[in-house]
Amino acid sequence: MSRFFTKTLAQLEPYTPGEQLKIPDLIKINANENPYPPAPGVAQAVAGCVDGLRLYSDLTEAKLVAAIAKHCGVAPENVVCGNGSDENLLLALRAFCDQTHPLAFADITYSFYPVLCDLLHIPQHILPVEQDFTIDLTKYYGLSGETIVIANPNAPTSLLQPVAAIEEVVRRNPDSVVIVDEAYIDFAGAGATCIPLTQKYDNVMVVQTFSKSHNLAGARLGFAVADPALIADMNRIKFSYSPYNINSLSEAAGAAAMADEAYFGKTTAAILATRTSTTARLRSLGFTVLPSATNFVFASTDRMPAKEIFLKLRSRGILIRYFSAPQRIDNWLRITIGTDGQMDALVAALKEILA
Amino acid sequence: MSRFFTKTLAQLEPYTPGEQLKIPDLIKINANENPYPPAPGVAQAVAGCVDGLRLYSDLTEAKLVAAIAKHCGVAPENVVCGNGSDENLLLALRAFCDQTHPLAFADITYSFYPVLCDLLHIPQHILPVEQDFTIDLTKYYGLSGETIVIANPNAPTSLLQPVAAIEEVVRRNPDSVVIVDEAYIDFAGAGATCIPLTQKYDNVMVVQTFSKSHNLAGARLGFAVADPALIADMNRIKFSYSPYNINSLSEAAGAAAMADEAYFGKTTAAILATRTSTTARLRSLGFTVLPSATNFVFASTDRMPAKEIFLKLRSRGILIRYFSAPQRIDNWLRITIGTDGQMDALVAALKEILA
User: Is the residue at A7 inside a domain?
Assistant: First the structure.
């Protein structure tokens, strides 16, 4: 860092994103992206707003908020949008945490939470997951004076908690905001989302993204659903730091993607079918595969160290995610569910590697 | 705010953006937007990346950075992009200011600086502009331990400082980062930009935007040019808070807009010609108009209070910017240069109002 860089952030360890390999014909199943293109209506929606780019975007994001509210069955006052889900997490942490209000979260979860805490000087209360990677949510009761974030389903473990278990956390922390990060919830089946809790409790916020189930990772769109008072708090931060946070093109893309429930249903179902078959095939190759509620699987085998499998797949042009962090997951692999064809190639390569 | 909102930001006064009136046939000359649509190549560039939206955007923004570097005559290592210029200001303030390193800036300037300082708990060193709204940059010498931001041309005054005067500030503050906010520089004529200083000094950063001269306010794109060490500092913050800050659609739009130097030259020249004629017409109506180096004019008259003119124009469907803040500018109006037709309508309305 330069001699001008603030000493208060000298220890900052920036988030390490998944590898961006530029190889022709790469099978890229390392970043939990959707293998299917955006909904057919997205192209026209985007084309329709190019001339209007000379004007600032709508800082209330009214069209996008309306589409999200309709999809989620809530009111527009329950919704705020972010430039990616990461921005909503930033707004929430800035609004509901500070140096005397820690953020509580699991040791094995989305690795961006500790990065944001470091940036914002927020103390971290880290709660280890169990030996089998499940989360014992009774350990989250009575965390007075803390804000809580629970990724559900969790990443990279892919495991889901039932709404009732999360509701107990919300109920037993009435003076804390409980953030439920539902980036992968649309792959968890009906009734898995905690959005209904936002209509019942004033201290729960559900964060979702367009990056996975709505095929728009490149558009950078996320949203949060909560009691209107919490949404107003989020907007208070947003207007102090990036009033026009969503660009017009992404707003149009997101609204069109969210309106096409049929395409959403079809592509999500295709991913779930491929997940079922991939899980079975990996198990037959000797992998332990956790029961996934996401668009990826978390797998491990005694047949070869995870890092070696990762590197051998990589040399064959198949990119999956390996976590070298000194955690309990250093013999596990995170594999995004791609198309059936991509999974065929993966399984064939694994057979060769493990032969 | 809700009972959960952090007490550390209870005093936050969010930035107030220009009014977003939704009136048919509105003449919107209140937000310094470009009256001309984006360059012709933007539509195709955007259409070409819709299918790829399923993938994350390029977190190095290589194509956009290359286009900017070429346009500015610098190396890619000198450039970082932001989700709007506001984000670059945020990254810079986070990187180069803290509770013991204040930000120095003028009392009459871009109103977002104090908002960001409040959000980030950065002390403000406010330097009043002169009675005639010029800035005496000798007052910026020797501000040891402070970061400095100078909007050049300044807003809303529209006044330009020569590069040599800013170079003196850079030279006389060798241990401070000097940020030159050049949002409007492309309307200031040849040789006005401080970008060449970034090749000579390690403590100057130039911030520019696609919102004005590149007709892309809705795409939310800004960039900073500086010594590679300062750019690395900016990226250090970026990767801790929003690694994928630029979406793929805006990246493509920005690269296409920046590559079309002919369209840029033509639309900029058209705005300068309209500015010249508008300035003359306003003066003939009895307005004092500062000599503008921007795509707006800053004007005042003794014939009627500014607020009354603003409201009367508004009721005629013409929206300009009036600053009600209790500053020295409460009898001044900021008027964006639109098309010749829009300016005809403005002048006709002013003639009626002042008759």
Answer: no
Residue B337 φ/ψ, nearest 5 degrees: -75, 115
Same-domain status, B233 and B138: yes
Residues of B in contact with A203 (CB under 8 A): 4
- Reference B158, options B342, B328, B293; nearest CA is B293
Last residue of a domain, one of A232, A259, A286: A259
Closest partner residue to B4 (CB to CB) among A3, A84, A230 is A230
User: What average pLDDT is seen over chain B?
Assistant: 95
Cα dihedral across residues A153, A158, A161, A163: positive or negative: positive
Is a pLDDT exceeding 80 seen at residue A121? yes
* Cβ-contact B112, B84 below 8 angstroms: no
Pair B170, B58 in one domain: yes
pLDDT for position B24: 79
Which amino acid, B206?
Answer: V
**One domain for residues B164 and B285:** no
**The pair of three-digit structure tokens given for residue B148, joined into one six-digit string:** 């400095």
| Burial class of A278 by CB neighbour count within 10 A (0 to 12, 13 to 18, 19+) | buried
Of B5, B83, B237, the CB nearest to A233: B5
If asked whether residues A170 and A242 sit together in one domain, one would say yes
CA distance A78 to A76: 5
Contact A202 B119 (CB under 8 A): no
Q: Do B199 and B310 lie in a common domain?
A: no
Q: What tens digit of pLDDT does each residue of A98-120 get?
A: 999 999 999 999 999 999 999 99
**Chain A with chain B: Cβ pairs closer than 8 A:** 284
pTM, two decimals, is 0.96
Residues B22 and B72 in one domain: no
What CATH number does residue B302 fall under?
3.90.1150.10
Contact (CB, 8 A) for B271 and B304: no
Tokens matching residue A51: 């001339």
Assess whether pLDDT exceeds 90 at residue A16: no
In this predicted structure, the answer to whether residue A81 has a pLDDT above a threshold of 90 is yes
Q: Distance (Å, rounded) from C-alpha A344 to C-alpha A249?
A: 35
B26: domain range?
18-37+262-354
Pair of tokens at residue A299: 């797998």
B 227-246 near A (Cβ less than 8 A): 227, 229-230, 232-233, 236-237, 239-246
Q: Is residue B11 part of a domain?
A: no
Among chain A residues, CA nearest to B145: A4
Q: Report the gap between the CA of B335 and the closest CA in chain A (Å).
A: 15
Residues 326-355 in B contacting A (C-alpha not used; CB under 8 Å): none
pLDDT tens readout for residues B150-162: 999 999 999 999 9
Q: How many domains does chain B have?
A: 2
CA distance B273 to B276: 5
CATH number at residue A158: 3.40.640.10
Last-in-domain residue among A259, A279, A306: A259
- A4 is a domain residue: no
Evaluate if residue B103 carries a pLDDT over 80. Answer: yes
In a domain, B5, yes or no: no
> What would the pLDDT profile of A143-198 be if each residue is shown by its tens digit?
999 999 999 999 999 999 999 999 999 999 999 999 999 999 999 999 999 999 99
Residues B163, B99 share a domain: yes
Instruction: Mark whether B297 and B268 lie in a shared domain.
Output: yes
State which H helix or E strand residue B333 sits in: strand B333-336
Do B61 and A216 form a contact (C-beta atoms < 8 A)? no
SS3 A27: strand
Question: Which of A91, A115, A247, A268 to substitute to test the interface with B, most B CBs within 10 Å?
Answer: A247
